[in-house]
Design goal:
Oligomer: single chain
CATH topology: Rhopdopsin 7-helix transmembrane proteins
Number of domains: 1
Largest sheet: 2 strands, antiparallel
Number of helices: 10
Shape: globular
Order of helices and strands: HHHHEEHHHHHH
CATH architecture: Up-down Bundle
Strand content: under 5%
Low-confidence stretches: 1-9, 14-19, 325-340
Distance between the termini: 38 Å
Strand order of the largest sheet: 1-2
Number of strands: 2
Length: 342
């Protein structure tokens, strides 16, 4: 993968945002891009393993029957799209078709992943806070409808980047990046920044926080031996989302301020450029963490995975213990609002 000094796998658009700073003032450490390349491939391996396992277990051994299953299936599919796109960037410079295809796959996974995490938060909110009233709203039919709408929104938001994706190696060493029309360049760059900030920072994050705060209020009134575990899980979900996506979105917002010339400082510009690469890595790691947070810690999924392992491995003793523990947990929580389909 050819990576220039200012290249950013996610965010590069072939244009200089900054204040005319000399690139020599950039304080990137030596071999930075080799380290970044290794990290991208590590994320690819982990994301591929985790999300493929989730899809396999859901489709072959659980079957998709509820809105929760639909959300988890689509989140895994979205994360898998994002994961698969990472190593393919190494070949995006071969022709324009592959450039646009890789850009589309990445952008689609980028937007849909955050939206499906938000949809799962709303589903969990309905399941716990409005357990009785939301029974009719959490059916398989509504889950499919919500998922289709989510994918349509993601396609609409990803389309401009695909349209403008162009091969132009001579610009800055980045083989595949968007080149906007000169007369509307600022509009399209601001539109992209605004779209990313709207999805990740201004809409989805408040919804996620609202849903889980309401869930915590309900759980605080519940007498159940598993309440503390549920509270810790909720805290983990919110913290993981904040840690992964807020730094990236804050830097995107600062890039917008640079474009508007609100920020016009050489050192600040270089600091933003240097931090963006690492923020992207942290953001992309979310697609590897999602299977662990949303699937592997859930009783239903763990029991199904244990059954699969008991068939395809010699760990029969361990899997029987896991199943036994899962059965006990289910009995303890089957009549409380703490239990969920995850």
């Amino acid at each position: 993968m050819n990576m220039s000094d200012n290249e950013s796998l996610i965010y590069s658009d072939g244009y200089d945002y900054g204040s005319g700073c000399d690139e020599d003032t950039n304080t990137d450490f030596p071999n930075k891009h080799m380290v970044m390349l290794v990290l991208y491939y590590v994320l690819f391996c982990l994301g591929l393993l985790g999300n493929s396992t989730v899809l396999w277990v859901l489709l072959r051994h659980i079957k998709v029957k509820t809105m929760t299953d639909v959300c988890l299936l689509n989140l895994a599919l979205s994360d898998l799209l994002l994961t698969v796109s990472l190593p393919l960037w190494a070949y995006s410079s071969q022709n324009l078709v592959s450039c646009k295809l890789i850009t589309g796959v990445y952008q689609l996974g980028f937007y849909s992943g955050t939206l499906f995490v938000t949809l799962m938060s709303v589903d969990r909110y309905l399941a716990i806070v409005h357990a009785v009233a939301a029974i009719q709203a959490r059916t398989l039919r509504y889950g499919i409808t919500a998922s289709v709408i989510t994918w349509v929104i993601s396609v609409i938001m990803a389309t401009p980047q695909v349209i403008f994706a162009t091969l132009d190696i001579d610009e800055d060493g980045t083989p595949c990046h968007p080149i906007y029309p000169e007369d509307s360049k600022d509009f399209w760059k601001m539109r992209r920044n605004f779209s990313e900030n709207t999805v990740g920072l201004f809409v989805c994050l408040p919804i996620i926080v609202f849903c889980y705060v309401k869930i915590l209020v309900v759980l605080s009134k519940c007498r159940n031996s598993k309440k503390n575990r549920a509270v810790k899980l909720i805290f983990t979900i919110v913290c993981v989302f904040v840690v992964c996506w807020v730094p990236y979105n804050v830097l995107v917002f600062l890039q917008s301020l640079e474009q508007l010339r609100v920020l016009n400082n050489c050192h600040v510009s270089n600091a933003i450029d240097s931090a963006m690469s690492f923020a992207e890595i942290i953001a992309l790691s979310h697609c590897c963490i999602n299977p662990v947070v949303y699937a592997f810690v859930g009783e239903k999924f763990r029991k199904s995975l244990a059954r699969v392992l008991s068939k395809y491995s010699s760990l029969s003793y361990l899997t029987r213990s896991a199943l036994s523990e899962g059965d006990t947990t289910e009995k303890e929580t089957s009549h409380t609002p703490v239990r969920s389909d995850y």
